Amino acid sequence: MKIPEGCILNAPHPYPVSVRHVIGHLLPDLMMGCLHQAVPERVTAEGASALWNPPLRGGGAISGQARGNKPVIPDFEIITFNSGGTGARPTQDGLNATAFPSGVRTMPVEATENVAPVILWRKELKPDSGGAGRTRGGVGQIMEIATKGDLEFAVNASFDRIANAPKGREGGLNGAAGRVAQKSGALLRTKGFQVIPDGDRLVLELPGGAGMGDPDARDPILVARDVRDGLVSPANARKLYKVALTEAFAVDEAETARIRLPT
Question: What's the pTM?
């Protein structure tokens, strides 16, 4: 292994290396891409990789003391650990909302809300975020975060897999890219300190892992199960996997055979 001096993986003092850990979390996908050329049956597709750890801060340090008659929440600073989906494996689907290779999954909502004036209004798996394939990528998640009373707070973003979604392998489709925004709709930068104003909330859409292999080769029974579990929409079951479903979300075998016929 050769790492040229002066790049972010071999940065001599005093080069700036802020949030270099994000690069470190992306390295396994790079190495898997290299190994895929030699042992394709033993590697995974790309995943969300970097953890989404939003450091949150609020109170007088953000709002200042001069708010007139507006309330001020107590000073707080907290960081939460959250993960998108891992890439599909050669014989198994990717893991939902789980980091690779660290295995970090998530922090309980109750733990965060117990120690800071923060409310997580939404924290759920994100449908259709796992890349389609013979084995499906793990799905990401959606989080909606605010302070008590929806008062002003700040986030110091260090998010990735937004401009570059996880890539599939061997015909598998890419996972969904991430997204950072205010609930009002304004997009936020993926890096850096930003303030969420009064009355608004922070919305995080974590990336999904990519798929592996041709989606047409996926067992229709598994596709139907994913639809019943809310991981894949009926529309994408038909569009991406060519699996038709009944009203009860069971496999319509005749229609599935018809739409899977080679053209």
Answer: 0.92
The angle subtended at Cα 250 by Cα 249 and Cα 256, nearest 5°, is: 105
Please give the pLDDT value at position 18: 77
pLDDT tens-digit readout, 35-57:
999 999 999 999 999 999 999 99
Tokens 């809300």 map to which residue?
113
Nearest one of 88, 187, 91 to 139, comparing CA atoms = 88
